[in-house]
Design goal:
Blueprint: E1 2-5, E2 15-17, E3 20-24, E4 29-34, E5 40-45, E6 55-57, E7 60-64, E8 69-74, E9 80-85, E10 95-97, E11 100-104, E12 113-118, E13 123-128, E14 138-140, E15 143-147, E16 152-157, E17 163-168, E18 180-182, E19 185-189, E20 194-199, E21 205-210, E22 220-222, E23 225-229, E24 235-239, E25 245-249, E26 263-265, E27 270-274, E28 279-284, E29 290-295, E30 305-307, E31 310-314, E32 319-323, E33 331-336, E34 340-341, E35 346-354, E36 364-369, E37 374-375, E38 379-382, E39 385-391, E40 399-408, E41 415-423, E42 430-436, E43 439-440, E44 445-454, E45 457-458, E46 463-468, E47 473-474, E48 478-481, E49 484-490, E50 499-505, E51 512-517, E52 519-520, E53 530-531, E54 534-535, H1 536-560, H2 586-603
Parallel strand pairs: 34-41, 43-52
Antiparallel strand pairs: 1-32, 2-3, 3-4, 4-5, 6-7, 7-8, 8-9, 10-11, 11-12, 12-13, 14-15, 15-16, 16-17, 18-19, 19-20, 20-21, 22-23, 23-24, 24-25, 26-27, 27-28, 28-29, 30-31, 31-32, 33-35, 35-39, 36-40, 37-39, 38-39, 40-41, 42-44, 44-45, 44-49, 46-50, 47-49, 48-49, 50-51, 53-54
Helix pairs in contact: 1-2
């Protein structure tokens, strides 16, 4: 169907799920590819080559790298959810089971560790081995089983990590493959001439089979048969119960060395594996007859992944391959209800999708515009017919927006279609303004005559905003109709040449503005000058009147007092002498006079 080129050898096996193929390369990258066309969806880079196959579960990709880290990535985007640093590189492929990730490490203080990590990146437990753990673990019936480089197979409790058993296979050989767990047994080979079956509960060896060459593949087990390959170039099929040989491929002689673990396509009764002779082989599982082979540009140690009647694998020629029936391509068309829009206006897009022969439902549609704008979620009205509203964006000139729709659906190649909508800017507002007078004394008032038009057409109902570079205040603009507006500008007290800015806006139009300059000089105009809304001249008059009233009160007081310091009246004090204010001091009288004056001002 397609090849995809990476930056280096591809040793690892792919994982296929949710329409994507996840496969790492020795270039240190994990690639997420479209299952049906091989297009790259995203790529995630580590700082070292990747040998291990990732695990994918519940929308998360768990990746182990030789940079000593395990990463949890978002399946759809490749973004990092979390990462865990380990002391040593990792070649053991992580396995997901029951909410935990299991993987082995190389040397940690001259020992290796099998890690069990929850999906939230907290450690459930860790088992310290006594040699390197390159073998990928297998999980079944509450047990985690794996091999070590010193020839031991180990089983630990899945929940606690406690060792259940540890058995040597009988020869000093590294176990770098993943054990296969089936029928209550453990099927495992070593880097020697031995393949064996062990009791899953006790670890006791049930039978052994001599291969005459090292074993470098994990086994596939189905229907009472166990399949595995050897470095000598022979694929074996053994009776899973007795270990008796059923058949081999080829029947005579050998092919290239086999380090690609076999994969079973049970629906087609096919066994698939790769070889160092550059070929992927497809055999009949019953008798081992060759069905077909596909030759690449390099050796194949990547184990094939079978999904959706297709097969995916990597090669030493740096490529990833997808083989199978080429998916049909979706056909799409798109038509707008309106082809010319102003900002904020809407055109209804009608999209039809077929699979080449019939309308296609359940399609995912992705809409985009070359100049922006908004789309509503496409809705299917009838089979294969979808609709979405496009809202035009704000533009400053006439532009053509290219609207694209991409239709995608699992099992099909994506299809796309284009249409064009002309986007027009809002009509601009033009602002003209004149001051009367142009020059005035500080604190004076200038009448601003404002006219707002669109071209030659008057515009009523506009919002006018006024500002000055030197302060002052403005009255609320008055709409006189026919595009004419009036406002009064009360100038500041200081002499200046302020710039007055007039802005006009109205929905459906582009805002407009204009500026004018007025001259302020001379003696301040106290008649028009206001302080806190009160004319300044009134304040001056009030203060003068208050001063006059206070002065009169003081003079009256002076006249009532005797001139001789020896004068002391002997008659009884008048009745009002008992009032609290009798005998008040000068300051009290002053305040009373002040209040009287203010009251007089308020009354006037």
């Amino acid at each position: 169907m397609w090849p995809f080129t990476t930056g280096a050898y591809v040793y690892a096996s792919p994982v296929v799920t949710d329409g994507m193929v996840f496969i790492p390369s020795w270039d240190g990258n994990l690639y997420a590819l479209d299952e049906y066309n091989g297009a790259q969806r995203w790529v995630f880079s580590t700082s070292a080559p990747i040998y291990a196959t990732p695990a994918v579960a519940n929308g998360v990709v768990y990746l182990a790298s030789r940079d000593s880290r395990v990463y949890a990535l978002n399946e759809q985007t490749g973004s990092v959810i979390w990462q865990r640093a380990n002391i040593s590189p990792i070649t053991s492929s992580p396995v997901y089971a029951d909410g935990k990730i299991f993987y082995g490490t190389w040397f940690v203080r001259f020992n290796s560790v099998l890690m069990a990590v929850y999906t939230n990146n907290t450690v459930a437990w860790q088992y310290v081995g006594d040699d390197t753990i390159k073998s990928s673990p297998s999980v079944n019936n509450g047990r985690v089983v794996f091999g070590q480089n010193n020839g031991y197979v180990v089983a630990v409790n899945e929940t606690t990590g406690a060792q259940l058993w540890k058995v040597a296979i009988g020869v000093a050989a590294s176990i770098s493959t993943a054990p296969a767990l089936a029928y209550g047994r453990v099927y495992v080979g070593a880097d020697s001439n031995r393949f064996l079956a062990m009791n899953q509960t006790t670890g006791s060896i049930i039978w052994t089979f001599s291969t005459g060459a090292f074993n470098a593949t994990s086994a596939a087990v189905s229907s009472g048969v166990v399949y595995f390959g050897t470095g000598k170039g022979i694929l074996y099929a053994l009776n899973a119960t007795t270990g008796a040989q059923l058949w081999t491929y080829p029947k005579a002689g050998t092919i290239g060395g086999i380090s690609s673990s076999p994969a079973l396509a049970l629906g087609s009764n096919t066994l698939l594996f790769g070889s160092s002779d550059h070929s992927l082989y497809a055999l009949n599982v019953t008798g081992g007859g060759l069905l077909w082979k596909y030759t690449t540009g390099g050796g194949i140690s990547s184990s094939p992944a079978v999904a959706d009647s297709r097969v995916f694998f990597g090669s030493w020629d740096t490529k990833v391959y997808g083989l199978g029936v080429i998916a049909p391509r979706l056909q799409a068309t798109i038509f707008p209800s309106v082809t010319s829009l102003k900002p904020g206006q809407v055109s209804i897009l009608t999209i039809t999708v077929t699979n080449g022969s019939a309308p296609q439902s359940g399609v995912t549609l992705a809409l985009s515009s070359s100049v922006g704008g908004g789309f509503t979620q496409p809705v299917m009205g009838s089979i294969g017919v979808y609709s979405s509203n496009f809202t035009a964006p704000l533009v400053n000139s006439v532009v053509s927006s290219i609207i694209q729709v991409v239709a995608s659906e699992s099992g099909f190649l994506s299809g796309s279609a284009f249409t064009t909508i002309t986007l027009n800017p809002f009509p601009p507002l033009t602002v003209a303004a004149s001051p009367t007078p142009v020059s005035i004394t500080p604190g004076g008032e200038i009448v601003l005559m404002i006219r707002v038009t669109n071209g030659t057409t008057p515009v009523t109902g506009a919002t006018i905003f006024l500002s000055s570079s030197a302060g002052g205040s403005f009255s609320n603009p008055t709409d006189g109709g026919n595009g004419n507006y009036t406002a009064v500008y009360t100038t500041p007290l200081q002499a200046s040449n302020p710039t007055v800015t007039i802005q006009a806006s109205k929905p459906g139009f582009a805002s407009g503005q204009n500026t004018l300059t007025v001259t302020i000089n001379g003696i301040p105009n106290l008649t028009n000058l206001k302080v806190v809304g009160v004319p300044f001249i009134y304040l001056i008059a009030g203060i003068a009147l208050l001063f006059l009233l206070v002065l009169i009160a003081l003079v009256s007081r002076r006249k009532r007092e005797p001139t001789s310091p020896y004068y002391h009246p002997v008659e009884a004090p008048p009745a009002y002498a008992s009032r609290p204010d009798f005998g008040e001091g000068l300051s009290s009288r002053f305040r009373r006079g002040l209040f009287t004056g203010l009251a007089a001002i308020g009354g006037s």
